[in-house]
């Protein structure tokens, strides 16, 4: 076979080197990629491969102008893709664009357009040539990977036993809400709740019952925190924490009281030593409200509320203690 020396990778040189326009055309139309050419001055298709009909259903002859191309694009993609391609073409920059193209029967196929800008000797844009590629399967794979990533991310932020937020999620949300409270001057409240004598509960009822107890309490706490920015998290062991943005002392106190009532309404029997009131599971709560200044630290606030929780426990349990405002 004779070597072909191609002085330039451009389309015309390839055709000249092959020496047969029919062979050149057959090569282009035998690939799954769809070749096309647009005259820049008229914005009309000079050519588009017949493969377009097999992919999208639109007849080859129906691709007359760039308006046909734009009209057959998903509305959510159209402005972004058309604006990008026009600006890059005007600048004479080769580019790629991914978008959803509409089939003749109203479905959509993911397309990647790879565009080469052809210039005249004076530097002005003469035409655009390129290939369309069907990337639907690749997009499906990417979307599946993204879905799995989101699921894994969600799992990493969720307590495996109770299904509520875990400590990692709480720490992230606290950092964000602390910064927002500092900027806005609005209050931020915490309720930290610890199940009374939970070790004795496990000893008396077993760890399976202990897990069920934790899940039931997590469920009622989640039901109480209805606002979009509220966070209910398992803080560790038998300890739960509620993050309440834009909640002042009164609102936080009402939430704590509602938690006590909701746990009492569960009437979970506690047969262990030193069981709660009436032989049912109870909890102790610490409550605090902060209005963060420039030097205030979120961790110090959490530690302070945790201290009043333990004051509630040492003061007799099944109690609410409020952090005094400095």
UniProtKB/TrEMBL annotation:
Task: State any single GO MF term.
Answer: diguanylate cyclase activity
One Pfam family linked to the record: PAS_3
Q: Write out the transmembrane intervals.
A: none
Known EC number(s)?
A: 2.7.7.65
What are the PAC domain coordinates in residue numbering? Answer: 95-147
What reaction gets catalysed by this protein? Answer: 2 GTP = 3',3'-c-di-GMP + 2 diphosphate
Source organism superkingdom = Bacteria
What Gene3D superfamilies does the record tag this protein with? 3.30.70.270, PAS domain (3.30.450.20)
Output the GO biological process annotations, alphabetical, semicolon-separated: cell adhesion involved in single-species biofilm formation; negative regulation of bacterial-type flagellum-dependent cell motility
CDD domains assigned: GGDEF, PAS
Which cofactors are reported in the record for this sequence?
A: Mg(2+)
Which Gene Ontology cellular component terms are annotated?
A: plasma membrane
List residues of the GGDEF domain. 186-325
Protein name in the entry: diguanylate cyclase
């Amino acid at each position: 076979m004779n070597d072909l020396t191609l002085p330039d990778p451009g389309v015309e040189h390839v055709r000249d080197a092959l020496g047969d326009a029919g062979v050149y055309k057959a090569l282009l139309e035998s690939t799954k990629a769809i070749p096309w050419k647009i005259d820049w001055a008229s914005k009309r298709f000079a050519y588009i491969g017949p493969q377009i009909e097999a992919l999208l259903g639109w007849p080859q002859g129906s691709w007359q102008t760039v308006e046909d191309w734009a009209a057959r694009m998903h509305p959510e993609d159209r402005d972004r893709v058309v604006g990008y391609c026009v600006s890059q073409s005007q600048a004479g920059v080769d580019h790629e664009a991914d978008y959803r193209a509409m089939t003749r029967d109203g479905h959509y196929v993911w397309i990647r357009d790879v565009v080469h800008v052809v210039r005249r000797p004076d530097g002005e844009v003469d035409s655009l040539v390129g290939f369309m590629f069907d990337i639907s399967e690749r997009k499906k794979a990417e979307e599946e990977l993204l879905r799995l990533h989101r699921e894994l991310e969600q799992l990493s932020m969720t307590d495996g036993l109770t299904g509520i937020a875990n400590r990692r999620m709480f720490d992230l949300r606290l950092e964000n809400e602390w910064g927002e409270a500092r900027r806005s001057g609005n209050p931020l409240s915490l309720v930290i709740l610890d199940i009374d004598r939970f070790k004795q509960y496990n000893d008396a009822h077993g760890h399976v019952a202990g897990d069920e107890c934790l899940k039931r309490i997590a469920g009622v706490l989640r039901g109480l925190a209805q606002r979009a920015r509220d966070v209910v998290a398992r803080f560790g062991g038998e300890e739960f924490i509620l993050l309440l943005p834009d909640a002042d002392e009164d609102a936080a106190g009402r939430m704590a009281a509602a938690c006590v009532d909701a746990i009492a309404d569960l009437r979970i029997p506690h047969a262990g030593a030193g069981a709660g009131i009436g032989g049912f599971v109870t909890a102790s709560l610490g409550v605090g409200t902060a209005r963060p200044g420039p030097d205030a630290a979120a961790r110090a606030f959490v530690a302070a509320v945790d201290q009043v929780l333990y004051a509630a426990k040492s003061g007799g349990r099944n109690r609410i203690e409020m952090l005094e405002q400095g």
